[in-house]
Structures are given as structure tokens and as C-alpha cells.
Write a structure and sequence with these properties.
The chain is α/β, with parallel strands linked by helices. Helix content is about 40%, strand content about 15%. The chain is globular, with a radius of gyration of 19 Å. The mean pLDDT is about 95.
């Protein structure tokens, strides 16, 4: 495990390169993820091993390079092409409103902020109160709420949000239909099964 802020991943990548593994799981985030992936490519690791990112940084494909991220599997909270699937009408509604206002497709951070407010408003409405203990009690009832990624709910015993996780696979530049069409959605995994 590399410390946060590492800039030279060579010692870690040498071990990975010599491991004989078929898959490398990169748990770095943000700048560390960008640098470690670029260096993994320089070490020739990405040509020999499948890269998996359990939690994808939204800007990583653009920062690293789509062709480097082609074939990489990643987990993410939201990917904007989910709106193309009729099973996710709230994703389409959210994308349309976001794109109209900002002239871009939303990343998961924008979606997370939107859903946090929407779920809070739902809990306030069900509680009939803004008083935090009442709102908490509404959350703790474990009521399933429709979201942009399908049904979600808070687990009462530990307050954990149970929600689907989107698995994406990176595209080559030549397969991209627009400047931000970095991934294909491979699967939307049920949150209950994950937990």
C-alpha cells in the first residue's frame, strides 16, 4: 500500500510486474490513481494484466488517457449513460436537467449531491418535520426510495446506504461517441447482494 501523495510508484510496480498476476487492483484515488496508472503503463503492466479500479475517480480517463483506460474495469456510483436505459427514468431526468443548465454530462459527484438532497427531502416529507432526530427516524425506517440508479434505502441497524454499484469498462478513443464517452456500463450490481 502506497502512502497518500506518492509520486514514484516504481517500487510497488516492480513487485506487481514480477508477480505473474493476471489482474492488478489499484485502490489509489485522485492524483495518486492518475500517476500510478500512467506509471503502470510505462512499466508495461497494463499490456500484461487487467487493471481493476474498485472506486473510479470521475476524471481519471480524461487525465490518464482513454486509450490507457481502455479495457479497465471500475466501480462507480454513477455514469451518465445509465440514462440511455429505460429502467432508469430518473437518471434521464437528472441528466437532461444537468446538461441543460451546465452544458455537460454529469459526473458522479453531481449525482451524489443531487441524490443526497433528494433523499433528505424525502425523509423530511415522510417525517413531517425538519427536526433532525425526526428526519433520522424517517431514514432509519429503511424505506426504499427510487433514485437515479434504481431503488436505494438506508439500513436501519448501521445507517448504511444500500444502493446499486455501476461497473464500467474503459473505451478506446476510436470507440468513443463523444468527448466524455469514456466507459461502457457492463453491469449494475444490486446493492443488497454487495452488502
Amino acid at each position: 500500500i502506497s502512502p497518500l501523495g506518492t509520486t514514484d510508484f516504481s517500487t510497488y510496480l516492480l513487485n506487481v510486474a514480477n508477480s505473474g498476476a493476471d489482474v492488478v487492483v489499484n485502490i489509489n484515488f485522485g492524483r495518486d490513481a492518475v500517476l500510478s496508472i500512467k506509471q503502470a503503463k510505462q512499466f508495461g503492466i497494463l499490456g500484461k494484466m487487467t487493471l481493476v479500479m474498485p472506486y473510479n475517480t470521475p476524471f481519471i480517463a480524461e487525465q490518464v488517457d482513454p486509450d490507457t483506460m481502455a479495457g479497465v474495469y471500475a466501480g462507480t456510483d454513477y455514469w451518465w449513460t445509465l440514462a440511455n436505459d429505460a429502467k432508469y427514468p430518473l437518471a434521464k431526468m437528472f441528466n437532461d436537467a444537468f446538461s441543460a443548465k451546465y452544458g455537460a454530462n454529469p459526473e458522479w459527484g453531481a449525482n451524489a449531491a443531487y441524490m443526497q438532497i433528494a433523499m433528505w427531502a424525502d425523509a423530511v416529507e415522510r417525517a413531517g418535520s425538519f427536526y433532525p432526530p425526526d428526519v433520522i427516524a424517517a431514514y432509519e425506517k429503511g424505506v426504499e426510495v427510487q433514485s437515479t440508479v434504481g431503488p436505494v434505502k438506508f439500513r436501519p441497524d448501521d445507517h448504511q446506504l444500500i444502493r446499486p454499484v455501476i461497473i464500467v469498462k474503459g473505451k478506446k478513443t476510436t470507440d468513443m461517441k463523444s468527448k466524455d464517452d469514456f466507459y461502457d456500463i457492463v453491469e449494475v450490481v444490486d446493492g443488497g447482494q454487495l452488502m
